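Shipment paperwork, digital attachment
Item: protein structure file
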Amino acid sequence: MADQSLKGTNWGRVIIDDKNLSLSHLSQNVIKIPLKRITNSNIQKNDIVLQLSTEEYAENEDMLCEVRFYIPPKEQKTEKKKQESNEDEQDEISYLQQVQNQIVNKAKIGGSSDSILTVHEVPFIVPRGKYTMDFFKKEVRFHGNTYQFTTDYKSITRFFLLPMPDEVNLSLVVGLENPIKQGQTAYNYIVMQFKKDQETQVEMKYTREQLDNIGWKGIRLEYTGSMYDIVCDILSEITGIKVVSPKNFKCKNGLFCLRCSVVPHTGFLFPLEKSLLYIQKPVIYIKHDDIKEILLQRITQTTQNKFFDIKIITKNTSYLFSTVDKEELDNLTQYFNSKKLQVKKIQEENEGINIDKDDSDDDSQNGHKLTLSQMDSDEDDEDFQAQEDSYNSVQFQQKVQKTRAANK
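Attachment content:
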């Protein structure tokens, strides 16, 4: 603890060596972070945001998972002036970016030099962007223009390969036990989207013997074909998790999904064999075993309303999928019944004035129900007070009759 600052100072100089990243003030460490714990680093305005690994901690244990270094614009200019004597191209890079580059290089974030194989330009829609996938022995790293993130193979829980309604794209949904983070947003699912005719070629950097030694006996030395097939095959083989695709359920138009909305976003609901999956934002995964009840709302047949809502109540929460086409009601009801799920149809009541039979004694005169004119008359309204200089309808009719008699 001799070199540890105990003054409560929260500023200093960033020092990066081969093992640690330190913030130092007056030759004493304010904070020291092992580089091996840094899983991601990105720039947000004037901040460098570090995401730290939490695998060594228990689920309910307190842990440090994010650190932010704020570099003021004045400090960036000062550091740049100190380096003006060097007329290299690196001088044009801001001090903020220089620190970021050092962290990425020293912590080996997104580095592909020692990876086993690399797949370039993989399109993502959650989070959005194009990422390069580097496969290592225990983890896969994704790095794009702005963000980089890493996930352990043990953290991957499920795969879904979904044909999109445009019949051009396929979406690969990857479920994660430990969510990745970009700023304040956490993603429990990442979604890649491939064109069916998009082809690529991938070659392993390891020999057959090296692959066998690390347990990748099912991985081929070379892959050629559709990009979605290659990525699915590699991930499924490494993790041992099967890729799930829709099979039996189909809509009226022959597609495997329903267009609907989870406010405020529009997406697609896929009824699968043992679950329901909604993409794109947010990705929602619901197991059949977790569903307590399904409510089909607004199902009354009217010319004005062509949509209905699906409310799914689970053991812990509920989800509302709105604006589902009513033409899909029969198909969906049959699907729920075939999975032995409890379904309840809710029809909205007719709008208008309804008089309860039990209240007939209070609202009747001489055994007859009140008419609309009696119900709405001014005399029944205690708050209604006519002005003295105005005429009601009876007075007006009497005056008209007197005027006509006088003219005769």
